[in-house]
Amino acid sequence: MHRVIIVFVLMLGITTYSQKNFFLNNAYNRNILKLNVLGLPSGMVSLKYERILLDKTKTLNVGINYLAKRNVPFLNMFDSWVEDEKTLKILKGTTLSNFSFIPELRFYLKGLEATGFYVAPSVRFDYYKLNIPIEYQLEQFSDHITLNGPLNVFAFGFSVGKQWKISQRWYVDWTILNLSYNMASGNFEKQVPLTAEQQRYLDYELSSFLIKNVDFTYDIDERGVKSTVKSNMLIPRMALSVGCRF
Question: Which helix (H) or strand (E) covers residue 118, if one does?
Answer without folding.
Answer: strand 116-137
